[in-house]
Amino acid sequence: MDIFFLILGFVLLILGAGKLVDGASSLAKLFGIPNIVIGLTVVAFGTSAPEMVVNLIASFNNSTQMVLGNVMGSNIFNVFGILGICSIIYPLTVKSNTTWLEIPLSLLAGVVVLIVSKDMFLDNSSVDIISRTDGIILFCFFLIFQVYSLQVAKSGVSDEQEVYDTKSFSKPKSVIYILLGFAGLIAGGEFIVSSAVSIAKQFGISERVIALTIVSIGTSLPELATSVVAAKKKNVDIAIGNIVGSNIFNIFFILGISAFINPVVVETGNYTEIYMNIFAGVLLFLFIFSGKGMQINKTEGSIFLILYISYILFLILN
């Protein structure tokens, strides 16, 4: 039954995120908010809503290994899994200034997590922990990034405006969609966290491994769908920008809020995924900026997928 509720949770989570985005986008449009601003706020929050809801529920339930594992696992899957698949479909070339500025920022986000978690090394503390203060620092980074994104949008530099196809509903229908979306997200998140913890106990698997594999892949399905569609349409900047933006959002906003609710204890094993997340950012940076034409080609995408499969096997075997 736990597996059934886990799958049901993912279905409710993804449907809820979709309804929330449709309803909120429509409502924002009715109030005259520009399309690009809707894309950078409502749509960005919506695609990351599954990770956010699962992490908030895990934080309140004191499942801190689920919190860190979901964020790190999602970021690793985003780069190695999703960008690997997308670049095999169509080579991903960085075109806009916004994307190549955000790629180093996503790498910085991974480094910041490493720094704020190294309390025993930096402060001679008895335990490594991402504290509430660290959570506030991460959230401040997110605010800076959001202001930057909105400024870029207002200046007209971004070429992503045409991608956000917002729905048009009446105000009552928009509100109903938003409420249905929130209900689906909350119910789905509850099912996922409770069933994932139960499965981990039944099979003797750590919450960390469950979060890094099943939960992180499931909560990243909206990003996978968005990026694959963009790659098929040859909107390569969107395929990359969606993933890079999601990784920044996951660390600075979701992990920041989660740590503020309940400080996250960083165990020795957690550094594997923290370093893996940084490695993914470094490799993405090298593939794009060291090769010809600033792109991820099919060969590099295949390397990403091989690395991800190897990483998952490493987690399972260990």
Summed up:
By secondary structure, this protein is mostly helical. It is built from 13 helices and four strands.
Q: In words, what does this structure look like?
A:
- The radius of gyration is 19 Å and the shape is globular.
- It has 318 residues and is an all-alpha fold.
- Residues 157-163 have low confidence and may be disordered.
- It has 13 helices and four strands.
- The strands form two sheets. A two-stranded antiparallel ribbon has the order 1-4. A two-stranded antiparallel ribbon has the order 2-3.
- It has helices at 2-30, 35-47, 49-60, 64-89, 97-117, 119-122, 132-155, 171-203, 207-219, 221-232, 236-261, 270-290, 298-317, and strands spanning 92-93, 129-130, 264-265, 295-296.
- It has one domain: NCX, central ion-binding region (A middle domain of Talin 1), CATH 1.20.1420.
List the SSEs and their pairings.
Elements: H1 2-30, H2 35-47, H3 49-60, H4 64-89, E1 92-93, H5 97-117, H6 119-122, E2 129-130, H7 132-155, H8 171-203, H9 207-219, H10 221-232, H11 236-261, E3 264-265, H12 270-290, E4 295-296, H13 298-317
Helix pairs in contact: 1-2, 1-8, 2-7, 3-4, 3-8, 3-11, 4-9, 4-10, 4-11, 4-12, 4-13, 5-7, 5-11, 5-12, 7-11, 8-9, 10-11
Class based on secondary structure composition and strand pairing? mainly alpha
How many distinct domains? 1
The counted number of beta strands is: 4
Rg: 19 Å
User: What is the count of helical runs?
Assistant: 13
Order of helices and strands: HHHHEHHEHHHHHEHEH
Shape: globular
CATH class: Mainly Alpha
* Average pLDDT reading: 85
Distance between the termini: 26 Å
CATH third-level topology: A middle domain of Talin 1
Strand order of the largest sheet: 1-4
Q: Into which percent range does the helicity of residues fall?
A: over 70%
> What ranges have pLDDT less than 50 throughout 5 or more consecutive residues?
157-163
Tell me the CATH superfamily: NCX, central ion-binding region
Largest sheet: 2 strands, antiparallel
Content of β-strand: under 5%
Q: Which architecture would the CATH scheme give at its second level?
A: Up-down Bundle
